[in-house]
Amino acid sequence: MRFFKIIAIVAILLGGAYAASMYYFVDESKSFKIEKEIDYPVEKVFSQFNNLQNFTRWNNFFKSSQSIDIDYYTPYEGQGSSISYVDPKNDTDGEMFIRYENPNKTLRYQLFEDRNESPTLVDVKFKAVSAGKTKIIWNVHTPKLSVWKRVGNFWTEDRFAENINKSMATLKNVLGNKVEKDNQMAAIKYDSLMVEKEEDKLLLGINVSTSNKKDALYKNIVMNYNKVYNYVTMDLGKKDDEFGYPIMITDADNYKDKEVSYFLGIPLSKKFGVTDNNFNFRSVSPTQNYVMYYRGTYEGRVKAVQQLIQKAKKDEMRFGDIRQTFIERPMEDQNVNMKLSLSVYK
């Protein structure tokens, strides 16, 4: 009995010491600032923050969990928009609101976590450093915590900073793909031969061999495009602005062959383990290309390919694979919209 009394007294003394230290030495709430820069214009960056459907695609807090369920409420962007979320696996839930918006300059978020009646307040400022660079400043104020929970303030800032670092890496990839697509669409000049340098790419896709009779090749391309697209978007959970345009790589002059072999893949930002053996990664080295944009029937692309090959021969350039980048989704019985790129070298 005496032993239990001693244990109780020690527990009370330790509890009192803990409470006193938390009360006198740890703030009941935490305020801190984090600054980052990203190499994209402020209007493109801001749209990823004020549209909560965009926001949850790259923000690590939401993106890192496979079990989180998010509901979006109108308006879907700007002041007054909101979401609620439940993550049963991690035993957490909450609500997030945009309370104030000054377009391309300021946003104010309120985040209520785990039935806490006091919100975390986050003011985000956007400053255009240059035409293509934006500074993002987070001013964070955490809710007041009781003495017993106040120890959490020791690592709140570190946890928030880590989340921002991971989020910014994903945001850079999202904006990179989005800007690349916008730039490609803006630069299209159909049936004009151009010279371009293409950077290296990492593609996730499928290797295929199929017949080249009549429209069999195009039907096969449509089928395998759907396989790859569905795998990337449904199985891997990627959104359209997280990857680039699908690319088909094949021999430049195989349009004359009875059977065609090709690789059809979607550009991704990094390599990871793939559980489905039908799919594999392929690294594409930087190249110099002769390029033509083409819109029409898939069979009609042959004329454009021949022009690229003739140009290479005229310039006494050797050539390798041809890449067919599908700017619009290939569909049966419809015209294609694509970029044809013939890699050339001395």
TrEMBL record:
Record family assignment: Belongs to the AHA1 family.
Which InterPro entries is this protein grouped with? ASHA1/2-like_C, START-like_dom_sf
Taxonomy, superkingdom: Bacteria
Organism expressing this protein natively = Chryseobacterium limigenitum
Q: Name one Pfam family in it.
A: AHSA1
Give the Gene3D superfamilies listed for this entry.
Answer: 3.30.530.20
- Tell me where in this chain the Activator of Hsp90 ATPase homologue 1/2-like C-terminal domain is found: 39-175
Q: What is this protein called?
A: Activator of Hsp90 ATPase homologue 1/2-like C-terminal domain-containing protein
